[in-house]
Amino acid sequence: MKKLYFLFLASLLALNANSQASFCEDFELYSNGTPIAETSKNWNTWGELMPPYAIAPFIDDANVVTPPVSPGTNSLYLNDATGAGGPQDVVLMFDTTQNIISTTPLSTPYTTGSLDFSQMMYIIPGKTGYFNFQAENEPGISWALEVNFDAIGGIIMSNTSATTFNCTYPAAGTWFEIAFDIDLSNNIWEVFIDGVSQGSFSNSINQIASLDLYPGVSSEYYVDDVCYSYDTTQIVLPGLDLAVSNIGAISGLDGQNRDVTVEVTNFGINPVTSFDIDFLYNGNTITDNILGLNLGTGAITTVTITNPITLVNGTYTGIATVSNVNGIMIDDNPSNDTSSIQIISITPTPGKLVVGEQSTGTPCFGCPRGIVAANEMERDYNGYFQSISIHTESGDPMKAIDYSNGLNNYITGPPGPPSLASIGNPPDPGLQQGALVDRGTEIDPSAFRDHFLSKIISPVSAIFTADANATGNVIDVQITTTVTSAINGDWKFACVLIEDSVTGTGGSWYQANKYGDLGISLIDVDGTDWGVLPSWVPSMIYRNVSREILPSFEGGLLPNGSYNVGDVFTQDFQFTADPTWDINSMYVVGMLLNPNGIVDNAVYSPVSIATYVENVSSTTSFNIYPNPAVSTTTLLINLDTEKEVSISVKSVEGKLITKGEYGTMIGSHSLTFDVSDFANGVYIIEAIVGNEVIVKKFIKE
Predict the structure, then answer these.
(1) Stretch 498-527: mean pLDDT, rounded?
(2) How close are the terminal C-alpha atoms of the chain, in Å?
(3) What is the mean pLDDT of residues 471-486?
(4) By mean pLDDT, which of 59-63, 135-139, 571-575, 660-664 is the weakest?
(5) Does residue 403 contact residue 390 with C-beta atoms inside 8 Å?
(6) What's the CA gap between 74 and 79, in Å, rounded?
(7) Which DSSP helix (H) or strand (E) runs through 516?
(8) Which of 3.30.70.20, 2.170.190.11, 2.60.120.560, 2.120.10.30 would CATH assign to domain 2-231?
(9) pLDDT tens string 321-330
(10) Could you read off the pLDDT of 432-457 as tens digits, one per residue?
């Protein structure tokens, strides 16, 4: 890659006398297999710069190699060799002083002036990439910015102080350049991919000291032509400059609606009072007019586009554009008026329900991460993903002993606590992770989404109907299985009883929270930041709490050893609820397990409770059709005597969606409900007929 290298050097010659530091590394002076930090005067390893200050040869060094795909001779190779990230971890200080040791006086970290940085990258297909900028000379104190490359062309940038920025890169298996034009004096960080601006943002940690190259989990990539230049010259801002600084990441399932959030920043001198914003997706443009603002220099506002977009199967580009700023169609810097993201939508396997099980506990300081992850999944994939929280910690009043003992054979423990010295991708590499998706390999719960998206398109061997009814504290469950692909061997089935929205009083019910202890931002779906909550959070509402699993964590063998396509069989389970549990907030999840213990498919059903004051069977009949429903569902009521009738439709969480009062009725009546706008999933219909309460469920597809 000599050509790019010399072009960069030529640009350095044009810098004015205020230039303080510049450097470019193309790795051409080294032999294949050379460890870069041990050999170069400009590179260090992470361990070399941190106590106890490692000496060569370094276990976290990275080798120069001659890759088969490089247009040049040499590149630097980084690969996750542990399955949890690392051990390679090399640092390039943005100071040209050579042979740096921990006590070397440096001009970094930079807090004013401008820094230009660029490097070429090649990510192996199917793998990921990662690097970060350190904010202090000693690594591990503060991450100015983390840059994560997923395997499908997405880039997510963030730090521990809630800075976020998303963009895209060319497909894996292609060399591309990522560059940053960082104006520290005005806190403007602009990102370029192959020379094209991806947008600008303000960084809550607006200082920089070094580059850290570290292979995160599943990372494998090459780096070449690593260049930087620092200049103390102050940059004069334009008069009117409104930029699209970020677009919230969007993904999901075909047909789902998604809100679009766009962050815009005033990088100009003049206040911004109004602007228009367009969002283009799948050939459709949504335009909003934003009025009544007073954004000063550096001020940020986030716009949620009025109308959501409907996802279409496949990968499409979403483009946000600002215009008509203060009534002027084009501002003084149009290069940052537009930004784009890749929006990926997939079509789920019909009838597929993915199960996420996670170890948690009130004394678990890292578990807020799992709480937030589960809440996000319920918000975005309700009816397709089912979260189960298994309280495994001693002293936790919700501990499910049998379930906990079974889960602990598959995991290292509940999610490990965060620390300022272990922020990475995924969070806290090397610590306990504590979650499973469909009983696959252990993951951190923050990875629920990625694993769900791979599982929801998996073929299934069966689909189900389920019914759960409570009489007193006894809950009878009947699950009917229809085989869709031949089943042979030691297939098993397990049924879980779950209680939602569990509360309690006293210190044992407080949730431990290391995020609040360290001030690390962790935003929940309702906007709550765990980073500002106390280290022990009272008044918690615990979601999806496992109470019991039958017959065991591993499940019980199916009635027969083999089934053909079209075969139907039924299994019965019976739970006895503790008197302290709220049966009104309970539901069951059935899981079909293949011979390897992997969840093939699952089914959900709320627990129904019917209170009979009269003999319902002789005076009242109540049916729902069609069920499942697509656009409408009809309630057929037949009353032998006059009765007052009211009908409520609720979510499975008990939230009232609609209610109708029908007065006194007798005879046969058909009541039709429009459910076309309902999200796919399970709903509850509660009919109050005279003194009777009848509860039924229906499925919206």
Answers:
(1) 92
(2) 54
(3) 94
(4) 660-664
(5) yes
(6) 16
(7) helix 514-518
(8) 2.60.120.560
(9) 999 999 998 9
(10) 688 999 999 998 898 899 899 989 99
Q: Is the pTM of this model over 0.85?
A: no
Write down the residue that tokens 């690392």 correspond to. Answer: 86
Q: What is the distance, to the nearest Å, from the Cα of residue 106 to the centroid of all Cα atoms in its chain?
A: 38
Q: DSSP state, 583?
A: G
Of the candidates 487, 384, 411, the residue with the CA atom closest to the CA atom of residue 700: 384
Strands 188-193 and 176-183: antiparallel
Where helices occur in 280-424 by DSSP H, the ranges are 368-381, 401-407
- Angstrom distance (rounded) from CA 274 to CA 291: 5
Amino acid at 496: V
Q: How confident is the model at residue 129 (pLDDT cuts 50, 70, 90)?
A: very high
Reported as a single tens digit per residue, the pLDDT across 590-618 is 999 999 999 999 999 999 875 443 334 44
Structure tokens at 460: 């299934």
Q: Is the dihedral of CA 193, 198, 199, 203 positive or negative?
A: negative
Question: Domain 242-346: which CATH class?
Answer: mainly beta
Q: Do domains 242-346 and 611-700 have the same CATH topology?
A: yes
Residue 215 and residue 218: Cα distance in Å, rounded? Answer: 8
Query: CA 508, 511, 512, 515: dihedral to nearest 10 degrees?
Result: -170
Parallel, antiparallel, or unpaired for β 354-360 and 75-79? unpaired
Domain ranges of the chain: 2-231, 242-346, 354-458+503-540, 611-700
**Which pair of structure tokens corresponds to residue 206?**
């607006």
Phi then psi for residue 443, to 5 deg, are -135, 165
Q: Of the candidates 211, 243, 215, which has an alpha carbon nearest to the alpha carbon of residue 227? A: 211
**Domain 611-700 class, CATH top level:** mainly beta
User: Tell me, what's the pLDDT at 431?
Assistant: 54
For position 694, what pLDDT does the model report? 76
- Region 479-502: mean pLDDT is 96
